[in-house]
Specification:
Structural class: alpha/beta
Helix content: 40-55%
Distance between the termini: 46 Å
Order of helices and strands: EHEHEHEHHEHEEHEHEHHHHHH
Radius of gyration: 20 Å
Strand order of the largest sheet: 3-2-1-4-5-6
Number of strands: 9
Strand content: 5-15%
Largest sheet: 6 strands, parallel
Number of helices: 14
Length: about 300
């Protein structure tokens, strides 16, 4: 069992930290909004008032933060992780950030005698709660081996995909595929409803064929129910698709579908849906089809 400092107790971070505590690890959590540590404390963890307090006695440090600047600030700030973690500490960043930032943070960590893994996750809030996340990990073999027991407490699919930055590159590909699937599903359901088909029955049979997918299993009912309570928020998926399009441009790779779904995600955000679950791309299809009803959607 390890002592783990966990920074960032939001929609994903909180249940991940709770699963670590339930697995028997000593988890000390920190969040800028202190009240978000309450669920971890109830599960047997402890709340810290500062980043320094969370990491100073930790063998491992975990982060789950919104974006690259947040990660850089928490790691490299005067009161940050790098300033207070003991030499040899393994730092695991579960955030979704740009690969070049992850590589740079790994280099700074190494210079400070620390180990760094970029380990973004997929599976949404449900996967975080149930401990069934898919975790794609970039970094050294040694750091991965040391971190594997805590990774397996949160994920059912844990794969070391390469050196530093590789985890973030795989996550970018994941977010492209997920966004394209959500958009296709949204269009299909709007299409079915326009033809007065029994959509629940249609979704059931589609799920049993080649059109079946994890996205269909987890997002179709949300669209049918017009339930877009945030899990994976449009704001964050918009950020992720920005990472995809920038990385594709830098590599000289053409991603026409990626560019399109990035634009559609940006449109949903501009229409005020940024705080909703990314399945709310459905609302954008309804708007464009002249079928959007603010009273029911």
């Amino acid at each position: 069992m390890a002592t783990i400092g966990f920074i960032g107790l939001g929609v994903m971070g909180s249940p991940m930290a709770i699963n670590l505590a339930r697995a028997g690890h000593a988890v000390v959590g920190y969040n800028r909004t202190p009240s978000k540590a309450a669920a971890l404390v109830e599960a047997g963890g402890r709340a810290a008032e500062t980043v320094a307090e969370a990491v100073s006695s930790a063998e491992m440090v975990a982060l789950n933060l919104p974006d690259s600047p947040d990660v850089e600030e928490v790691l490299t700030g005067d009161d940050g992780v790098f300033a207070h973690a003991a030499p040899g500490t393994v730092i695991v960043d579960f955030s979704t950030i740009a690969a070049d930032v992850a590589i740079r943070m790994a280099e700074v960590a190494e210079a400070a005698s620390l180990m760094f893994l970029d380990a973004p996750v997929s599976g949404g809030e449900e996967g975080a709660v149930t401990g069934n996340l898919s975790i794609m990990v970039g970094g050294s073999d040694e750091a991965f081996t040391r971190a594997l027991p805590i990774l397996e407490a949160m994920g059912s699919t844990v794969v070391h995909v390469g050196p530093s930055g590789s985890g973030q590159t795989v996550k970018a590909a994941n977010q492209l595929i997920v966004a394209a699937n959500i958009q296709a599903l949204a269009e299909a359901i709007v299409f079915l409803e326009a033809h007065d088909v029994d959509t629940a029955a249609a979704v059931k049979v589609l799920g049993g064929g080649l059109a079946g997918s994890t996205v269909l299993d987890h997002k179709a009912q949300r669209m049918l129910d017009r339930d877009f309570a945030p899990g994976g928020r449009i704001d964050l998926h918009h950020k992720d698709l920005g990472i995809v399009t920038a990385a594709a441009r830098d590599a000289g790779v053409v991603t026409p579908l990626g560019s399109l779904v990035a634009t559609l995600m940006a449109s949903a955000r501009a229409n005020g849906d940024g705080g909703l679950d990314h399945s709310a791309l459905f609302r954008a299809v309804e708007r464009m089809s002249g079928r959007f009803d603010e009273a029911t959607d």
